[in-house]
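Issue 218. Parser rejects a valid record. Input:
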Amino acid sequence: MRQNPSFTLTDPAELKRLVRENPWATFVSNTSAGLVASHYPVILDESREELTLLSHVGRPDEQLHELGEHELLVIVQGPHGYISSGWYDEKPAVPTWNFIAAHFTGVPELLGDEENLDVLARLVDHFEDELPEPRRMRGTLEDAAYAERIVSGTVGLRLTPTRVVAKQKMSQNRPDHIVDAIMDELGGDGPYASAGLLREMRLVHDRRRAAR
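Output the parser choked on:
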């Protein structure tokens, strides 16, 4: 991913927030058979201070990716959207795309069945916690027994990235009046309105303005 100093994201807290709020990731491997890509949920290993991802793949994806034999690229993407040049008061102008994304690269550690089962339970809890009546993976004896039977069909993994490339492109290169115009459009009722992208832009620019 091409970097630009205006948009580079390095804050560990913001990277962790990105993962927590956007847990659907793309896994990419450059294998002996060529490029392989898969899609799986990820969560943070909250027991570690350093940024570490936990996930699993369904068999035989671990063979397709040759997991543990080389680097794995995990891509996490947050809110994004089209920014029309018609929203600017500058002439001439061209449209752009605002987004937040991170590339986490490293050699994953493969987990045994017990630890994998624990990671699967944490994944379920992460999403069920949002529901009024969460259904835990081990909430009943029957569910726990079922999970233990099917765990062998998955392979758990832990990834502590050795390389992180992240970008938070939220019109930081634009003057305040244009940023405000963009946010007005994102908060409106047009075809490219986006509450998620608006929230990200507000977070970035509120910090920037407070730091002045």
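Fixed in the parser; the record now loads. The radius of gyration is 20 Å.
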